[in-house]
Specification:
The chain is α+β, with helices and mostly antiparallel strands. It folds into 2 domains: about 210 residues, Jelly Rolls (Sandwich), CATH 2.60.120.10; about 100 residues, Homeodomain-like (Arc Repressor Mutant, subunit A, Orthogonal Bundle). Helix content is about 45%, strand content about 20%. The protein is elongated, with a radius of gyration of 23 Å.
């Protein structure tokens, strides 16, 4: 698991720069720091900003404090980043912010939260020249399994308090004490996901397991869903599966083995079942079917198919 810490501050800039050049240079550095959004600097005060981020696998915690009047995630950011995660954000300032997302416009009061979809643009404008917020990026596939109706709470103000505020408090602690992340590893990301799921509406058995901690059954379901959706990708790997689920590769392998089979066995089984189904339907070329199912070696596909079904792909055609 990779833990990466990033800090960007105007304190890193040369003190000899005028404000215009400070803003331009900071904007250049921001594009290297994060491709998630642009900012609108305040015009009535000297520009300053500090941004902190801690990457825990595919989960990110971060905060921002600066003289901005707004933050914008444009369509260009969406297309460039290809990021489909959810972003849980808290207004850490003292005044309201006006937010536009998914066709809705709403007020985000101090301490209140909202959930963004990063595959859609958004805009947040503050009523002052000082912007403060904290955020947690959460893997989409895992959160959708844990909270099936999660998209219903996107793009509106969420009341402070409860598990959501606790998740944000926890993320702030992780930023202030990055050494704890090195020690806790993916457990920290798992705790954030549990808290967010509870606060966003996990119900029934999912809520009970989240409250108890662990969520192994729910996380296994998320892992299997991702695998079933992406097994035809020729280069799909256990590492990519773990990243999509927001878990460590070791943890994903443990979940799969506990459920009866490891990653490679499940991947081959899914590909072979799909190939058998396609062969039974018609007269397409065997090589086309093999490649469509994720195999990039026809001889290997033939061997696997015969070992699994007891006959060659040619003999299986139409059956």
């Amino acid at each position: 698991m990779n833990v990466i810490r990033k800090i960007l501050s105007t304190e890193m800039l040369s003190p000899d720069l005028d404000d215009r050049r400070r803003i331009r240079q900071f904007a250049d550095l921001l594009r290297q720091f994060s491709d998630s959004a642009d900012f609108d600097p305040a015009t009535d005060t000297r520009f300053r900003a500090t941004m902190n981020s801690v990457y825990i696998g595919s989960t990110i915690v971060g905060n921002c404090d600066g003289t901005f009047t707004g933050v914008r995630r444009e369509r260009s950011h969406v297309l460039a980043s290809k990021d489909d995660r959810y972003c849980l954000t808290r207004n850490a300032g003292n005044l309201d912010a006006q937010v536009v997302h998914l066709g809705s416009e709403f007020k985000l009061r101090p301490g209140a939260l909202t959930l963004f979809k990063l595959d859609e643009p958004f805009h947040s404008a503050d009523t002052s020249s000082h912007t403060q917020f904290s955020c947690v990026y959460l893997p989409a596939a895992a959160l959708r399994v844990m909270v099936p109706g999660v998209d219903d709470v996107v793009g509106r103000e969420l009341e402070p308090g409860g598990a959501l505020s606790l998740a944000m408090d926890y993320s702030d602690i992780l930023i202030k004490h990055p050494g704890a992340v090195d020690e806790a590893g993916m457990a920290a990301a798992a705790h954030l996901l549990d808290l967010a799921a509870l606060g966003l509406g996990a119900r029934g058995d999912l809520a009970i397991t989240a409250q108890r901690g662990g969520l192994r059954a729910v996380r296994l379901k998320a892992v299997l869903m991702i695998l079933e959706n992406r097994f035809v990708e020729p280069d799909f790997s256990a590492q990519k599966l773990a990243a999509a689920a927001g878990l460590s590769e070791r943890y994903v392998n443990e979940l799969l083995y506990e459920a009866g089979a490891g990653f490679s066995a499940r991947l081959i089984e899914l590909r072979l079942r799909k190939a058998a189904d396609l062969l039974a339907r018609g007269e397409r070329r065997i090589s086309d079917i093999a490649f469509e199912c994720g195999f990039n070696d026809l001889s290997y596909f033939n061997r696997c198919f015969r070992r699994r079904f007891g006959l060659t792909p040619t003999a299986a055609r139409g059956k």
